[in-house]
Fold this sequence. Notes:
40% of the residues lie in helices and 15% in strands. By secondary structure, it is α/β, with parallel strands linked by helices. The radius of gyration is 20 Å and the shape is globular. The protein binds guanosine-5'-diphosphate (GDP).
Amino acid sequence: xxxxxxxxxxxxxxxxxxxHLMLGKGYRVVGxxxxxxxxxxxxxxDLAERVEIYSVDLTDAAALTQAVEQLxxxxxxxxxxxxxxxxxxxxPLGTLDLITxxxxxxxxxxxxxxxxxxxxxxxxxEIFGDVQSAPQSEETPFRPKNPYGAAKLHAHWTMVxxxxxxxxxxxxxxxxxxxxxxxxxxxxxxxxxxxxxAIKLGLRDRLSIGNLDAKRDWGFAGDHVEAMxxxxxxxxxxxxxxxxxxxxxxxxxxxxxxxxVGLDWQKYVETDPELVREDEHFQLVAxxxxxxxxxxxxxxxxxxxxxxxxxxxxxxxxxxxNLSTVGIHS
Length: 330
Ligand code: GDP
């Protein structure tokens, strides 16, 4: 029988890579998209013809329960979230309702319907927040520092409670930063690769950036979604920290991106104090050894390869856009 994967947040970066993975494994893939966000379907690109879309308001518990009952999913991947962390300060309550509310409603629906559906909750390294030690594992205490992290932590505990109290097969993947050519341009990786490509093509001449010494554990989104799927195929439902285990600075990123296009970054990059975030922690780095051991998972794409792929994709995109703007394509 064909397995069904239900995905919230399907139009985001992770939704795209996860859908590709699941379709390749023969799943029927259904994306839950709120009626107000139907225009985001264009972001599915080549997947639009291959996945099904179910229009439902993620804040409507009865409608979500109906969707789950009708679709009888084998697996649910709850990825929906406003992904850009700083924006959560502007709407803490909306962030909480979307992240924690959706998880709670989906878990309750699965429980009430008595389904054997396996549930993946997209958690985040932001739940560690104010870290006191590095690297972080599944045993590290949680100290979120922003509304996004707090909401993700609440969703994480809600999932744990459903697993412990009701015996649901539910897992949380505590994912570190993961990037790809589909990362939105407000994130530092994409901001940099896009700028390097644009400067190379003579479309702009400068890049303003925040703290060059900021560090993150940056992996490839395609590798991280593989871990999500593996979690739900395991014999027991457990939580996993997913990251590369390697820290790089924003300076490393800039240097790698500009060297892909043969430019010396120091000639083009300036720092802007306005872009420096206060009170940040730069020791957010994963200890993914449990996932490596139990799920036989390991990241396949190295940092330099990831940056190269993103720069090449941005070069291609900018050339295509530019050609179409000047009418050469028509
Ligand atoms: P985040 O880890 O989810 O906040 O992902 P981001 O890509 O937005 O930020 C990653 C790191 O890069 C953070 O430590 C930022 O403070 C740092 N950073 C430095 N300069 C910039 C910048 O110009 N834009 C962004 N978005 N981040 C920057």
